[in-house]
From TrEMBL:
Entry keyword annotation includes Hydrolase: yes
Lineage of source species: Bacteria, Bacillati, Actinomycetota, Actinomycetes, Pseudonocardiales
Enzyme class of the recorded protein, top EC level: hydrolase
Keywords: Glycosidase, Hydrolase
GO molecular function list: hydrolase activity, acting on glycosyl bonds
Domain of life: Bacteria
Protein's name according to its UniProt entry: ADP-ribosylglycohydrolase family protein
Organism: Pseudonocardia nematodicida
EC number(s) reported in the record: 3.2.2.-
């Protein structure tokens, strides 16, 4: 069995990178690992080509323990606790608190998230240059419709193989509804969380729900590490740090759109819900990514333009954090290379890859920069926005999903366009209990939380803030 994102010998290389990024000195551990025959270069696909010997695996566990025990330099610009995060933030924006009447933003948000995710599914793990070669070889460059294997030369297909799990259900010739994907499982799971616990849920409630409803084989990177830590009875927030080198990757960002959709016009309250969820598996910028995604979703339910959405969501990100810098770069690049023409997009993506090309393709910083760029450059047009997110070539389905959810909320289902909505057939497959869902039903459930609680949003956020403050105090 090929086990990804979990073998100790694969985690060491990733932890060396992560610990160094946090300011820890890892040179001694790296030297011992290399001397023992360990590979210091992280595996891009989640697992190296072969399992380690028992002796090397035992050393890997020992070194992971040592790396976990290294003192992490404190950075006031990038705190983990809710109270400390809020202390860094600018004033919350004044936005209307309910979606505009007569505009079906809930259906648009779910539909857009699904369509954007589906566009990126077959090319997940394929780098930017491979995506372009595939599209040119099939006459679809620049990207403006679904990928296809029809007419793809054998040598290109061998050089850039489709995502094995996704290709049978995510190419133009075989799409029949939205196939199962973790980027859609997590929003569905968030609805279950709210059903069971309301807005006052705790991080332990998230952990219990994972054990109850989330198949262990359908979690990846930081979530897989956190799942293991939950089963090992490790407490929050140790679930996010023990043998988890993926704690600043994109995993938490993909889990929190629903918290924004049910908290329209209140990005700060949405971000607090996202923080409670994200701290199970992530730290620092991994948490901020989740908060930002929730802020984007909250603002997209009530704002009229992408710029307004980006401005509002930016107020929930610590302003001197690396995530804030990544978002700012994405928006700056869109301003300096305006439009969605081939030359402008190539120049924009060149800038982002020059800045973040050294990061793993599932890291939060590079993907956040792409999400911000795709939204700003796409100017609220669905096809160009999700196409930019996907052709960037990092976490293609996750970036496409987040961008699609924002633009879908802004434009509604009709504004997305039948080209993108038709193949979904109004359904989303899921590996969660209950199986496939209808998008209309998911949208109605989401809207019901707003209908029931919109007048209590500020009060509910205040209660949750007091809970979070107690958690912060217990950690101090």
């Amino acid at each position: 069995m090929r086990l990804t994102w979990a073998r100790p010998e694969d985690l060491v290389a990733h932890e060396l990178v992560q610990s160094a990024a946090e300011g820890s000195c890892v040179s001694d551990v790296r030297e011992r690992w290399v001397a023992a025959g360990g590979d210091p270069v992280p595996a891009a696909a989640g697992a190296g080509p072969r399992p380690a010997s028992p002796a090397v695996r035992a050393l890997a566990r020992e070194l992971l323990d040592e790396l976990d025990a290294l003192p992490t330099p404190l950075d006031a610009a990038e705190p983990d606790g809710w109270g400390a995060i809020v202390a860094t933030l600018p004033p919350a924006p004044e936005l209307r608190r309910v979606p505009p009447a007569g505009h079906d933003r809930f259906r648009g948000a779910w539909t857009g998230r699904a369509a954007g995710c589906l566009l990126g599914k077959p090319v997940e793990k394929i780098p930017r240059e491979g995506i372009e070669e595939i599209l040119r070889a099939t006459g679809r460059w620049p990207l403006d419709r679904w990928f296809t294997a029809e007419g793809l030369p054998d040598d290109v297909a061998r050089r850039w193989p489709w995502n094995r799990r996704s290709a049978p259900t995510s190419l133009a010739e075989n799409i029949d509804g939205m196939p199962e994907d973790d980027d859609l499982n997590y929003p569905i799971l968030a609805l279950a969380l709210l059903d069971r616990h309301g807005r006052g849920f705790s991080t332990d409630d998230v952990a219990q729900l994972w054990l109850d409803d989330l198949p262990a084989g359908r979690v990846f990177t930081a979530e897989r590490a956190a799942y293991r830590n939950i089963l090992d009875a490790r407490p929050v927030p140790e679930t996010a740090t023990h043998h988890n080198p993926f704690r600043e990757w994109i995993g938490a960002l993909i889990r929190t759109d629903v918290f924004g959709w049910v908290t329209p016009g209140c990005p700060r309250a949405a971000a607090r819900l996202a923080w409670t969820d994200a701290r199970l598996s992530h730290t620092r910028n991994g948490i901020y990514g989740a908060m930002w995604a929730a802020g984007l979703a909250s603002a997209a339910m009530v704002c009229d333009t992408v710029d307004d959405v980006l401005d509002a969501a930016g107020t929930v990100v610590p302003p001197h954090s690396r995530l804030a810098a990544a978002i700012a770069l994405g928006r700056t690049v869109a301003a300096e290379h305006p439009g969605t023409g081939e030359a402008a997009v190539r120049a924009g993506l060149d800038r982002l890859h020059a800045a973040y090309g050294d990061l793993h393709w599932v890291h939060v910083l590079n993907n956040a920069a792409v999400i911000a760029y795709a939204l700003a450059a796409g100017r609220g047009e669905f096809g160009p926005s999700v196409s930019i997110a996907v052709t960037a070539g990092w976490d293609t389905d996750s970036a496409g999903a987040t961008v699609g959810g924002v633009v879908g909320a802004l434009r509604g289902v009709d504004g997305i366009g039948a080209q993108w909505t038709g193949p979904l057939r109004g359904t989303i497959a899921s590996s969660l209990p209950g199986g496939d869902r209808r998008i209309d039903d998911l949208a109605a459930r989401t809207a019901s939380f707003v209908d029931r609680t919109v007048h209590l949003v500020d009060g509910a956020a205040g209660v949750a803030d007091r809970v979070a403050a107690r958690v912060d105090g217990a950690r101090a």
